[in-house]
Model the fold of this input.
Amino acid sequence: MTTLSEKKIALVWFKTNLRLRDNECLTRALAENDEVVPFYCLDDLLLQTTSYGFKKAGAFRLKFLKESLQCLDQGLRTAGSGLVFIAGAPEKEIPELAITYGAQTLYAEKEVAPEELSLQEKVITGLSRLNCSVKTFECRNLFHSSDLPFPTAQLPEIFTEFKRKTEDVVTVRPVFPKPVFIRSPSIKSLDLSIIEAEVEADPRAVLVFKGGSDAAHERLQNYFYQTKALSNYKHTRNGLVGESYSSKFSAWLAAGCISAREIYEEVKKYEIIFGGNESTYWLIYELLWRDYFGFCMEKNNLRYFRRSSLHSSTAVLDLWVEARTGNTFIDANMTELKLTGFMSNRGRQNVASYLCNDLKVDWRYGAAYFEQQLIDYDVCSNWGNWAYLAGIGNDPRSNRYFNTAKQAAAYDPEGTFQQLWLG
Ligand SMILES: Cc1cc2nc3c(=O)[nH]c(=O)nc-3n(C[C@H](O)[C@H](O)[C@H](O)COP(=O)(O)OP(=O)(O)OC[C@H]3O[C@@H](n4cnc5c(N)ncnc54)[C@H](O)[C@@H]3O)c2cc1C
Done:
């Protein structure tokens, strides 16, 4: 019989893996311990303004986060557990939580970006003083880094080379099943009132984004099976208006409400039922881009955040942020971002190029505004794409210039998108 003092208790730290299915941290914690304490820590820093003058997380993402946590808590309660919610500085709050529950181990998602890594180190140091060990697991990507045919430090400098060396060689690991029963101490009901995130819904938004894995799977069912929009993805993915031109999975992927492997598995099922084509392949191809930026962050780290030689004039930056540049294609995209927290991939490429190449503003200010504003903000995808477009990343073509007039003519030939946002 296990006595209380012998009980193995683990903390499971939910960060950007807000799901029960395909969650290695949770699965391993359950296998190796008697009880687990699932928790989320709202980092004070998330609500603060950074040196770039923007919030780390704006209202769109906070609202999405709140909904995601509510859904996670419901799922945990159905399995006999619940979500502990704490707020403050994680390096202080998490060791206190370990003391409260007498935990010996913490299970957490492995970080790769500088700020997140530094926080992870601080938490590890704090817990080691309590003899609480830390185990980390990769939760973000399609491919596991140890399955790559090269160490991350030797990641190819260009995406096509990465794709060539991996896509037919690396096997995507199977999805971890959702645990049926989660053994936990009694956990009080969730109170998220501290997260104030009211946003006004704009009827022109591409989609009503609701956080949580239930909504993520509903979107997948809709995009794959109800509309079969997936079968046309390659031809529509550069669109600007409406919910079906692309999957809109990014916000759920960024919060981890759904994993890249779950989507991959579902594409494979879909291909068996309806047949695979270049579009079904292309969704996986885009997930490979996402992986690539994840591995690039691990390899390049601080290089992504380096200052550029461009200026940081707030007056010019404000014109871009406030959608008052006078370039209607740019202003329409920036209005959409401001009012909905989302922008298409075509739009993001254009506004980023415009800020760096036409307005000559330091790209990091643009990336920081995106960080505040995007509902789907992901540290690797955001800073990686910005660095890539600014020529700071590892692509040999240093200047990725987008001629916005040509782009508008090609992708918004009737001006429908510009009309929608600028009236
Ligand atoms: C300057 C800039 C900043 C960006 N910031 C982010 C960000 O913070 N978070 C984010 O998720 N994406 C970011 N992207 C990538 C991309 O624009 C979005 O993932 C995409 O528009 C989201 O819409 P979707 O889910 O409908 O994409 P789909 O076209 O349906 O693609 C499917 C999935 O593939 C992944 N993907 C597609 N394109 C890219 C790409 N270029 N880089 C990385 N992953 C990709 C996404 O996870 C996406 O959900 C950025 C792109 C640029 C140019």
Remarks:
- The mean pLDDT is 95.
- The longest strand covers residues 35-43.
